[in-house]
Amino acid sequence: MAALRRELLCSALLYGKANVPPVYRVDWEKCALYKNLIFGKMVRDLLLETGVRILNSQTATDPELQGLSNDERIQRVWARGRQFIAKCVSPRTFDALEAQIKLIHEEGITGFSITWGNVILSGPSQEPWIIDFDNARVHFHRWTPSSLWRRADDKYKYFKNYGRHVH
Fold first, then answer.
1. What does the DSSP assignment read for 89-117?
2. Contact 22/36 with Cβ under 8 angstroms?
3. DSSP 3-state assignment of 46?
């Protein structure tokens, strides 16, 4: 229930400000949010179309990953994706994604997931939409050490996934 509340709060705070699908219905009994459909492809799907093996189902028996810790496996899979990401995402789309991250941070929200499976690129312009806020935090005081640290952590995670920097 807490994740549903976080997702709903972030969606409400970002409505009309950021590329986040609006919520049109909440079913509290089923603990479910219903959001507008965003037509497009996840960054993950674009990577898969290049042939890179990044899904758990593809890497479970991968000899290159055997014997590694879970963290080492994740790092290796991210490195695979980073090798191909520039072929899937244009510089303009990266700039737009980084602008969305900055905008969301300016609204006091941190801890949202910007993994390859949580960013949808929509339309011919590949406009980025961010779809996962169930672990996000809202900082009503935006310049506290905690808020600034969490922003930096988001930027670090973005760098690890995409190999790019958010300023």
1. S-HHHHHHHHHHHHHHHHTTEE----SGG
2. yes
3. helix
What is the length of the chain?
167
Max intra-chain CA distance, the chain: 48
Amino acid at 2: A
Q: Which of 128, 132, 118 is nearest to 93 (CA)?
A: 128
Residue 111 burial (CB count, 10 A):
18
Nearest Cα to Cα of residue 155 among 82, 105, 93, 83 = 105
Non-local CB neighbours of 66 within 8 Å, separated by 6+ positions: none
Cα dihedral sign for 38, 152, 3, 72?
Answer: positive
pLDDT band with cut points at 50, 70 and 90 for residue 1: confident
Domain boundaries, the chain: 2-162
Residues 61-87: pLDDT tens digits? 888 888 899 899 989 999 999 999 999
